[in-house]
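Lab meeting, action items carried over

1. Structure of the two-component assembly. Owner: GW. Status: complete.
Input record:
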Amino acid sequence: MVSESMIIKKVKAAKAAAEKMVTVDSAQKNTLLRRMSRALKKNAEYLIQENRKDIAFAEKQGYSSALIDRLRLNDARIKAMAECLNETAALDDPVGEQIASFKRPNGLLIKKVRVPIGVIGIIYESRPNVTSDCIGLCIKSGNAVVLKGGKEASFSNKAIFLVLREEILSSKLPAGCIQLMPSTDRESVGFLLKQDKYVDMIIPRGGEGLIRFVSQNSTIPVIKHYKGICHTYVSDKADLSMAASICFNAKVQRPGVCNAMETMLVHSKIADRFLPEMIKQFQEAGVEIRGCMRTRKIVKKGVKRALAKDWDEEYLDLVLSVKVVDSLQEAVDHINTHGSHHSDAIITRDKREAEVFLQSVDSSSVYVNASTRFTDGYQFGFGAEIGISTDKLHARGPMGLRELTTYKYIIYGNGQIRQ
Amino acid sequence: MVSESMIIKKVKAAKAAAEKMVTVDSAQKNTLLRRMSRALKKNAEYLIQENRKDIAFAEKQGYSSALIDRLRLNDARIKAMAECLNETAALDDPVGEQIASFKRPNGLLIKKVRVPIGVIGIIYESRPNVTSDCIGLCIKSGNAVVLKGGKEASFSNKAIFLVLREEILSSKLPAGCIQLMPSTDRESVGFLLKQDKYVDMIIPRGGEGLIRFVSQNSTIPVIKHYKGICHTYVSDKADLSMAASICFNAKVQRPGVCNAMETMLVHSKIADRFLPEMIKQFQEAGVEIRGCMRTRKIVKKGVKRALAKDWDEEYLDLVLSVKVVDSLQEAVDHINTHGSHHSDAIITRDKREAEVFLQSVDSSSVYVNASTRFTDGYQFGFGAEIGISTDKLHARGPMGLRELTTYKYIIYGNGQIRQ
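Predicted assembly:
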């Protein structure tokens, strides 16, 4: 176990840096991010060389080829990381934004202004680009960041960190504003999660097990980027050719991401007309269908029986659950019970029905007549995102720079006292 | 220990009600709140009779007179509770408010709208009025509420709950939208705090011990209403007579509340001129002064020596810590280290200095030339408040109706699929 005193030292240094970060202006932050971007490209060879050590270890351990692919750095990926830093530099700085301003009858002028949160802890797994992406987003939003990456990426993460840290040391920003925890055991992570005196927010990015561990052990507020069990409900009032196009896109275009569709709900009135052709199209694209009893009555060929647990499953793969429902309400209830409050869509031409769906489905992003695949910081126009929150408090849905800030009230008086 | 199945039953009922609450309109909610208000007044005799049981028990247990006073219900207090419900009815409904709306190049129309959070758990101590105040605020903001009051107020809380529940049963709102947990042991509270599947947010209102227990044991996000260690810094550039008036008000006007001043910081350049008269005025009002070494050199009479722990103390009483500092930076560092991020003020005529203070002090409400006593929902113009958050995420400072909501994105398309 990493020594507790070392963890304390790092989070204290981050806190001290965070107090200075509030006075750093946008120009300084942007200049730094652009220099960091260039530094990544300049040091590509070194980064790839360090990354090879992680890859070699992973191969020796017999890790899956999917994991090894996520780990791998190459010129194109380093270029993409550098690009992300430049894009972050180009985004509007949320810090200092005036959210509201009002004058009270006693003359007090109250302003609600956007400020950095302070120290943000990111706990993540395999992908090394998360290191530079998060450093960029946290610096731009005026926060200090404490990074704890996966053991399997430790050489890569450290190399990226050192390259970026060099640039901070030759800037006017406080040196402690980025901190890298050694990749290590859960016990040390558990200790980090109790440092609510120094760390203001924790974002775990990774599998369900990691997120569960973090939220059960943290005394620091956690913003969870949980699984996406996304639904599309095809109403009996849908344009069925639009429905087919959207459902196909939501499932097939990129099945391994959180905003892909996992369950398709179809109204019983149009199921006979809609399902045969739709399922055929899915099957031709290699999608395995797991259907309810009624689905299997309509399409007899190649539809597996959906088990109870399938409705709660995030496949992240070319697999789809299909269920026939008798009403809008049944669809809404199914989504609110089995969904993950991420992204859900209705396909309908009926405006009233659409409004009921939009109001009743308790998810961060609710669509009418569009693919759930659009839940994404870039697609929403926020630019680079730190993730997609499935929580309800503080930040919900795509989290960009603004979601990495909080607010405070500043109040101007001229001697007011309370009566 | 209360049976776990009973707790599960109540939180499940609250969740089911919350799903219906999103479609209840403002008029229905307001009508209900006004009927609840009348019901409290009509049932005053019954409420006072039940309250007597709590008072008798408290007296038998030898509870402090301050606690017994907090417990007591009388006509005036019941009228105030009824008034609070009417005031809440009169406030603007935050639900449905459009926070932002934007169209993307692909034609998607994205709206960010305010929605209820869902199920809010309130864990509180002695004051019975919290029961009706919180029910009013949660209903108006479209949430279901699970209440867990103090054991010492159990007869009073139950009586208030039953009177208000009668009104819900004869309204169109879902019956389960208010739930009262039996007042009981911490074990049951611990179990309640793990029901993140059904409860969306927990607000503990009470002493430090309660808040610590809740935040260490909850898997549900917690908004803390922590102590207020508020500071006033009297700069060398202050109008000293304004400083004296504000400091006196911040300490003496109502010392037992969280936005009262606990520590006064004074610049060394004006300490000789400012402190003798100021401390004399405090002492005449019965304020005990605990000063640093330099304060005690300037005022020799009746100033106790401040111990290290005094800088971290919330006195909630006629006691004041006083410290002489040599710079704005020293004042800011002291506040960020020893304060509770609640409310802090600078008294100065120098605008640049004021801006540095406003930017650098990491508190929910930062004042220039006014008393910290103004941090309050009514004073800010928000109306009734559920408390004052000392957290940074989701809600900071006075929490009114808007802070009891979250948002979601609703997206209107006409067939868009992701490329």
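2. GW to write a short summary for the group page. Key points so far: The two ends of chain B are 56 Å apart (CA to CA). Residues 25 and 142 of chain B are 9 Å apart (CA to CA).
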